[in-house]
Amino acid sequence: MTSCAAPRADRSATGTSMRRGSCPSLAAPMQTGDGLLVRLRPAGDGLTPAEMRAIAGAAARCGSGVIEVTARGNLQIRGLTPESVPALAEAIGAAEIAIAEGVAIETPPLAGFDPYEIADPRPLARALRVAISGAGEALRLAPKLSIVVDGGGRFHLGSLTADLRVSALAHEGGVRWLFSLGGTARSAKPVALLESKDIVPMVLEILGDLTARGPASRARELDADLLRQRAAAGDALPRVDGPVFSPPPAGIHHFGGAGTVLGIGLAFAQTDAGSLVAFLRQAEELGANEIRLAPPHGLFVLGLSGETAAVAQRLASAHGFLVASGDPRNHIATCAGLACASARMDTKAMARLLLEAAPDLLDGSATVHLSGCPKGCASPTASPLTLVGAPSGYALVVNGTASVAPSAYRDENGIGSAFGALNALVRENKDAGESALSCLTRLGTARIAAAFEQG
């Protein structure tokens, strides 16, 4: 077992810059308020329970023991030091866990398992990884550039933003892939409808364009009309049908003959290593054989039967995990809060206050975003309500991101009554059968801001 009690200091193993601006990794951790942070993307479809326990155990020995699953379904380990990061890497290597490097190429969490997907996106994703890796230094890309390859299914990636998006569409008795630039499935700009064999050349061509523009360039800066002309695409390109948002992972999900999957969520995106290890041991005893990271902030447990999934669900709940889609904690997005040096809000404590003071806001129709600072790491897209930590208290953004001009302010002492006023606004004005989101939309920004400031 690798120990982090007194490791040999080796700053070269953690890169030359432990700072913000790049994606944190074992080679280049990011400095935060509670130490160094490392983000891990497993190279395979998932992890065995034993592999996941090995990571959690290393997180406890080498860091604070706080483990996160991000909104995009990546694993984060917090509270590391320059001396403990090499030991963490050694522990992961000893467990023979392959970690993905390079451009983030994301597929749905149940890719290849979900019988409702239009196409298995994994072969195309693998071909892209090989091609991009083979290009080597010829491609110099922005650190946070991402590519989504979405085969559809119950837990698709329609709500994730990406630089390049490749989405499977049923087309004339077969499958074609819609290639788009920037945004979510709804906001991305369609470029071409392609056969799978044409995707890799198209992606490499676009990445070459971005390299020529400079290493900070992102796909949203490219001219989609010019790219359509280059691809000889028709004028009427289709868009992805169906809902943009997939359901939260939490719950027992039945996939017919394919089997049953238990989804669990991490309350406010975090858990502790001890709780995770204990649950994984119990789940493995019940037959679990694979763990897949799932956006947003969850895990899927595969290998269980319908009966054992119900038992595992109760065990997960006892360890503090979210196990049902109706749990209001599913509908609060929080960043790391005071664990981050930039934060001006204890987002975890604020989430607990929100649960207590404003339950009517959390009916599942919308997500409330709690952001420690204007960067909005927990939710880069607009939310109906976003609370942002500010120097003199808290700022409320209605229908926007954490970075836009706030609609209202409240000092620190009045935030509990402000939440209560928003709750009363919805409870007293909601029509029969109306959702909180619909009610807030109908009432409008001015009334929401007035309730927040005056309540």
The overall pLDDT, averaged over residues, is: 91
From the N-terminal CA to the C-terminal CA, the straight-line distance is 55 Å
Task: Indicate the percent of residues in helices.
Answer: 25-40%
Number of helices: 11
Instruction: Name the structural class.
Output: alpha+beta
Strand content: 15-25%
- Spatially, the strands of the biggest sheet line up as 1-2-4-3-12
Poorly predicted regions are 6-20
Q: What letter string, H or E per element, gives the SSE order?
A: EEHEEHEHEEEEHHEEEHEEHEHEEEEHHH
How large is the radius of gyration?
22 Å
* Total strand segments: 19
Q: Please summarize the sheet with the most strands.
A: 5 strands, antiparallel
Shape: globular
Features:
455 residues, alpha+beta, 5-stranded antiparallel beta sheet, 5-stranded mixed beta sheet, 11 helices, 19 strands, 22% strand, globular
Description:
With 455 residues, the protein is an alpha+beta fold. 29% of the residues lie in helices and 22% in strands. It has eleven helices and 19 strands. Helix 1 (49-62) runs antiparallel to helix 2 and helix 3 crosses helix 4. The chain is globular.
Short précis:
This protein has 455 residues and is α+β, with helices and mostly antiparallel strands. It contains eleven helices and 19 strands.
Topology of helices and strands:
Layout lengths: L29 E3 L2 E6 L8 H14 L3 E4 L5 E6 L4 H10 L9 E3 L15 H14 L10 E5 L13 E8 L2 E8 L7 E6 L4 H15 L10 H7 L20 E4 L5 E6 L4 E3 H13 L4 E5 L3 E5 L3 H13 L13 E3 L12 H11 L10 E4 L11 E8 L2 E8 L7 E3 L4 H15 L6 H8 L1 H10 L1
Parallel strand pairs: 5-6, 6-7, 15-16, 16-17
Antiparallel strand pairs: 1-2, 2-4, 3-4, 3-12, 7-8, 8-9, 10-11, 11-14, 13-14, 17-18, 18-19
